[in-house]
Amino acid sequence: MSTIEETTEIAVPVRTAYNQWTQFEVFPRFMSAVRSVEQVRPAVTHWVVGAGPLRHEFRTEIVEQRPDAYVAWRSLDGRHRGEVTFHATAPERTSVTVRIRTERPGPVNLLVGATGLPGRLVRSELAHFKEYIEGQGEESGAWRGRIRGGHVQPPHPHPPKRRVPHWPVG
Amino acid sequence: MQKPPSEEAPDQLTVTPPKKWATGVPAVAHALEYSLEETSPQRAGVTLLTMNQVDGIDCPGCAWADPAPGHRHRNEYCENGAKHINDEATTRRITADFFRTHSVTDLAQRSDQWLNQQGRLTEPMVKRPGSDHYEPISWHDALGLFATELRGLDSPDEAVFYTSGRVSNEAAFILQLFARAFGTNNLPDCSNLCHESSGFALHETLGTGKGTVSLEDLHHADLIFVVGQNPGSNHPRQLSALEQAKRNGARIIAVNPLPEAGLLRFKNPQKPRGVIGRGVQIADRFLHIKIGGDLALFQGLNRLLLEAEDARPGTVLDQDFIRSSTAGFEEFAQYARSVAWEDIVSATGLTREKIESIRDEVLRSDRVIVCWAMGVTQHKHGVPTVREIVNFLLLRGNVGRAGTGACPVRGHSNVQGDRTMGIWEQMPDTFLDALKEEFGFDPPRAHGLDSVNSIRAMREGRIKVFLGVAGNFVRAAPDSDVTEEAMRRCRLTAHISTKLNRSHTVCGETALILPTLGRTEVDIQATGEQFVTVEDSMSEVHLSRGRLKPASRLLLSEVAILCRLADRTLQGRPAIPWDQFEADYGAIRDRISRIVVGLHDFNRRVVRPGGIRLPNPVNEGAFHTAAGKALFTRNDWQAPRAPEGHLLLQTLRSHDQWNTVPYTTNDRYRGIHGSRRVVLVNPDDITDLGLAERQRVDLVSVWSDGTERRAPGFEVVPYPSARGCAAAYYPETNVLVPLDSVADISNQPTSKGLVVRLEPAGTAAGDGARP
């Protein structure tokens, strides 16, 4: 088991930084190792990451999410988990800390881990996030719901419009 | 052209020990053998290699979801899917000569298997009043005759329009639009016969009529229940998902009155380990439950979970979820605690210790999924059983999280999509309002007839016209004699079909056979080649494009037949551009996108690889129930009981069967060969009833109306069925299911848990063996 922790200070309000972090499908725009992200459900995302010819796919479940404060996830294959915390250090400044823990490293993970590459990668991707959101100045979207114990609590307790057919299906 | 058998082969039963594993190399061999009997190697190659591929043919065999694009096998189908698709791709043809040779009376004496083996229907046929033969008729005259009958009705409610789940979204949408523009909600469908209980229960408790899990959820679950379901024969591709789940560490509990081979061990023919190895053990635990005992089992488990929480507060139940997202917990809990153990033990046939050991499995598991099928739904208490499964899932927050949820496993490939398209006799006003706004007519609001009520209405002479779009209504329906008599009372019966089946032989005064393109065939209309769309059991909507040359130049697509019939019947009132819809199915999808929420931008999105995944509100934390929360329910029950000298019977499919169509008389996994007229009985019950192995008996069902329903000439086969529980194949035993024996709330026929007695057959072997 190994843990990586990186912190950065971003010159945007905490709400802006958090909102941008909820827009996972946009991550490939600024994170160099992220090829694509699909938001399968509010609590489930499918990631394709890689460098050069290497590719790795995994699915994560967001287990906790509190607006402007906290997102925790785990990969559904049980290999790694992580969390990100947001807190305002000033009205226009936010401290963002990412912690990633590898639970069941395979031999490749161990080998790569020994080089220190994962730590550097997280640091550089966090820097890319900072650069992106500071450059844009405002978030590209927001999801303001909560997640507790893997259960989604939608942003509006009673969605005004049903989004799918809701009659019984025999 | 392969020749069909001209005469029926006599039944010759041999029995071998039931198999302890499913699939493997024999499944591949049987699939190829049957395919090549039906069609050429070239056609079989085209069908098999495009089946369930992105932009290929969606297998009509079942509604199991396909893996994500890029993760599919080159051969993404199962033995039964291969048999089914090549049964449609057959090179055998039925021509007008066939009907000159065989009268309707003659055909009505034939077995389901023989009728199916005659091949594809190739031109429209009519049986006129007083005649005993079908004769050719042009499409123009056939649809004109049909439209005249419809226009001559005193009320639109004198017609019913039945749909089977093979029908595409586009044809289903056109059918319901036509029926409602004509003025009726009489839209019975095969859902009424299979998962109606699931739909009602899930809708009431979770606010969605559909299952909540995806393939990935199954892959990542810790514990999967497979209840009242035989995936080895009916959804073989589910075994791949269960195998993957097991490789990820899941445990599986099978609950069934029969130890089905597919529940025990699976040899995946796509993997070397499945070809030469022992395969994967599927069920870690097998609960040999009595027929109809599932509600009691889950209630017992729920009681144990409540008591475990009492012993260690805060560690067993998901209190946070229960408090924030559910309603009705207290009343449910109070009732569940009061259920007596002796009742649970008696209803399930399981010991308390065994159920406690399952509780321990549950307590060790963070993520639980329950899969079920007809063994759960086709009971008087089918709806309460599904509701109790929901209670079980809610207690530990096993709903709406990754790797958890409710998984009703549907049979027919687009049975779920047809409902999404509005094939339901009780559609809500929101849908009808949307139709009104889009098409400028006021759809009828009074609820129509479901399948059982349609038969009742036909029996009483209130229905004059019956249209079946795909399927084999008289063989899928209960109480075969009553259903057939009811059908014969109609003025006109018509079927849009690919192949001959018994429904064509049970005619109204006039009868029409309207032959149609199969899912495998190229569909060319005025604007070019068309594709259709379907929705699988996991709410993924994707396209299906046929590849084969049509079986006959005279075939029309289902969409074309329905559009022309609508046009001829309605004659411009209301003004609906039926001709445009026939010419371009995209125009139908444009309309669907404006009416069915969730399918916005349908045409653009559905052509993307993998299609459209309809969101499930439960997985977004939204419960569209009356309370706005997930509902715990209190479910009273009475276990089905057979009096002294009687057994509980479940009707089921054989392995070589697809819905009402048997391909052969074999049932390989259960060790039955050469005959379908067998009743599987526990050896101790055979002794207790004073019967002998291989004795010929009549099955007689007992029902409160005092009518004797008899299925004659079955051989008794000893089988490891739960005590007091017997099994026999449908549709041969549908004759035993009383029309009025239906599930509470859902009105679904109770094809499981019938009380029967086995009477030694009075006459020589072979009597009454047809159809």
TrEMBL record, chain A:
Residue ranges constituting the Coenzyme Q-binding protein COQ10 START domain according to the UniProt record: 10-129
Record field: compositional bias (Basic residues): 158-170
InterPro entries found in the cross-reference section: COQ10_START (IPR005031), ORF3 (IPR047137), START-like_dom_sf (IPR023393)
Domain of life of the source: Bacteria
Chain segments carrying region Disordered: 140-170
Pfam name, any one: Polyketide_cyc
PANTHER family xrefs: POLYKETIDE CYCLASE/DEHYDRASE AND LIPID TRANSPORT SUPERFAMILY PROTEIN, POLYKETIDE CYCLASE_DEHYDRASE AND LIPID TRANSPORT SUPERFAMILY PROTEIN
Protein name per the record: Cyclase
Species for this entry: Streptomyces fumanus
TrEMBL record, chain B:
Record has Metal-binding as a keyword: yes
Cofactor: Mo-bis(molybdopterin guanine dinucleotide); [4Fe-4S] cluster
GO molecular function annotations of the record: 4 iron, 4 sulfur cluster binding; formate dehydrogenase (NAD+) activity; molybdenum ion binding; molybdopterin cofactor binding
Positions of the Molybdopterin dinucleotide-binding domain: 647-753
Any one Pfam family match given in the protein's UniProt record, by short name: Molydop_binding
GO cellular component, as recorded: membrane
Keyword check for Metal-binding: yes
Domain of life (superkingdom): Bacteria
Domain Molybdopterin oxidoreductase: 120-486
Sorted UniProt keywords: 4Fe-4S, Iron, Iron-sulfur, Metal-binding, Molybdenum, Oxidoreductase
Family label: Belongs to the prokaryotic molybdopterin-containing oxidoreductase family.
Protein name, per record: Formate dehydrogenase
Organism listed in the record: Streptomyces fumanus
